[in-house]
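Notebook, p. 212. Picked up where the previous page left off. The plan for this session was modest: take the two constructs that came back from the sequencing core last week, fold each one, and keep the raw output in the notebook itself so nobody has to go hunting through shared drives later. Recording the first one now, exactly as returned: residue sequence, then the C-alpha cell string.
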Amino acid sequence: MTTSAPYLLGRFLDPLFAICVGAMSYYSYEQKVQRPAGHTLDELIRKKYDRLKNKKTEL
C-alpha cells in the first residue's frame, strides 16, 4: 500500500507555486546580471505572446 505525497498548498497549487517561484528567482537573477536589451524574460515572453496573437488573427 502506498501513501500519497504530502502537499504544501494543494495538488493543483503546488505546481503553480513552483512555476511562480522559479520565474521570480530567474527575474531576480536577470536584475543582478543585467541582461542585454531584448533578451530579458519579460521581452521574450512578450515576443512569444505577440507571435501567438498574430497567428490567431491570421486564421
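Okay, moving on. Second construct, recorded in the same format:
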Amino acid sequence: MVGTWRLAERGFFQDSVYSIRVDTVSYNRDTTFYVTRRYPTTNPQTLTFEADGKLTAEGNEVSYYRPISNYRVDPDALRPDSDTLRLNLFISTNGANVRFQQALRVRQDSMLIIPPCNSCYLKFVRAR
C-alpha cells in the first residue's frame, strides 16, 4: 500500500436544485443523483502513503484527505470472510488527534477506499 496512488474513478451522490413552473408560480425542487466520474492521467489527483504512516493528498478531487496527517491500516478484516480492511485516518485538530475509519481494499495495482456513505467509493491505481 505504501506509495503514490492516482485517482481513476469516483462514485458519489450529488445534490441538485431545479425549478419547475406550475401556472404562474415557480417551485424549487431538491434532488440527489448518483455520479460516476472517471479521471484522466493528465493533472493527476493522488494520495501518497509513506512507510512511516504519513499521508499526503494532491489535487482538488482528493482535497477531503488534505487535513489528514497520518494513517494506519488495521490488518484485521471488517468481517472474517471479507478482504476489506479498516483504514484509520488521523486529523490533528486543536492539539488532539481525531481518528476516523474508512473501508479499504487493495488488489495488486488498484486500491478502493469506501467512505461511510451508501455506494460511494474512490478507486485508485498505483502511480509509483
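Notes on construct two before I forget. The chain is about 0% helix and 65% strand.
Flagging for discussion at group meeting.
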